[in-house]
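Predict the structure of Protein nucleotidyltransferase YdiU.
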Amino acid sequence: MRDLRFDNRFVRELPGDPEDGRHVRQVHGACYSRVEPTPVRAPKLLAWSREVADLLGLDETDLRDRRFAEVFGGNALLPGMAPYAACYGGHQFGSWAGQLGDGRAITLGETINPQGQRWELQLKGAGPTPYSRRADGRAVLRSSIREFVCSEAMHHLGVPTTRALSLVATGEQVVRDMFYDGNARPEPGAIVCRVAPSFIRFGNFEIFASRGEEPLLQQLIDFTIDRDFPELVAAEPDPAQRRVKWFEEVCRRTAVLIAHWMRVGFVHGVMNTDNMSILGLTIDYGPYGWVDNFDPEWTPNTTDAGGRRYRFGHQARIAQWNLWQLANAIYPVIQQVEPLERALAAYAEVFEAEDRRMMQQKLGLETWRAGGEDEEGSDAALVAKLHTLMQAGEVDMTLFFRRLADLDPARPTISHFDAAFYDEARRRDVSSGFEAWLKDYAARIRQDGGPDPVRRERMNAVNPLYVPRNYLAQQAIDRAEQGDPTGVSELLEVLRKPYVEQGGREAYAARRPDWARHKAGCSMLSCSS
Ligand code: AMP
Ligand code: MG
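Done. Here is the predicted structure for Protein nucleotidyltransferase YdiU.
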């Protein structure tokens, strides 16, 4: 396998932990601890992303090299790698949780690709670090498959995300109690190599604020701007102003991110501030889920079943709450309340504008009739009515919007959406309301103008046909746990073109089957991973 070029700015420019070793500790005055992956018994490459390999300047021959699995399974380092675990804190489920840090993620280094782009390579599940607390630093195959598949799927869907290069089986067992009910069992372990320009989280800033380490806080802010937001350095010469603009940009990116999640029906599941990327990327795929039947109340995370803090329809508000925590954290450096509050207000405006724009695209409308949800004749009211019907009627979100593009405006009928209904009784409950809505919509697109084929094509470019539905991922997991990992690559292959109908792949576009409705891994997931 060829060598990669490394330029490890994070460890070179920021202070590290003076203490060595993996023993669990509180790390003060440092952004990271140097720690190497713990070798595994039998690393075996199960799946990879050719797009990410390409990004890094790697090809098929590199991937087929035995050394690839050794490096990306944590058994060997390439020259120039400088592994470390980052120190961060976070607000978990609304409360400050203190120091968390990379408990099982280890960054190998920052590689510079042939085009000069910087990509951080990070192994997840690479063994204990000083931040592992009471856990083992490992990851199970099922959660690794979910992270690997979903992060690449998100990229192909056009949603900002961290990427995944490889999925490597460790040949070791990991013991997990999936439902925290005393039934711990051994499961196969795996390691994903994640790739992103930066894995810095809101929590990396919060930890220094919580400890009153203000010089370090300022250093990390300025480092982040310099390395990861070069456009701000060019645009704003004054460092104080630049920090404000940086926070505004973080707010803007986060707003765009959440609007995309709402567009495709993604529920993150654990929007703690340690799981919020400073670059506005989807990060840390855990008990996430994909909305099958449209339901703003739905949360896939069993740990969140009581409060539903991170439910589908609440994600925009939670992101703003998280940005408030980041604002509080950086305030000692910014020292002005007003620009921070303005940026937080702008977050809400950007989210609303993006969410509306994306909904307009989903509906295939060229124009938008102004007015609030309660105003008869407004498009906001049209959307609100649709959401109410979809929720009450248990309508599959993905299939509904995809079928909508093919609706004949001259003959709008509910039977066009047969494939999207889960329950006969629910369908009967909403059928007259649904028919009425379809008539309104048909009238609306006739008035909106534009030829049908053009509208259809535009709608199909924003309404995916294939998303990594929870049950599809679970089927690939079941097969992989039986020793056949090919289902992972097959699923990824379909998800590489989520907007293009693929002949013979109908099964991947089907609504959730009945057996998956209440099955673990398909509609509910625990944090155990
Ligand atoms: P998460 O909820 O997955 O974002 O994890 C929260 C914190 O727990 C992070 O600091 C993780 O690094 C840590 N963590 C989760 N699972 C493990 C594990 N198996 N071993 C060590 N640390 C872990
Ligand atoms: Mg996390």
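The first helix runs from residue 9 to 13.
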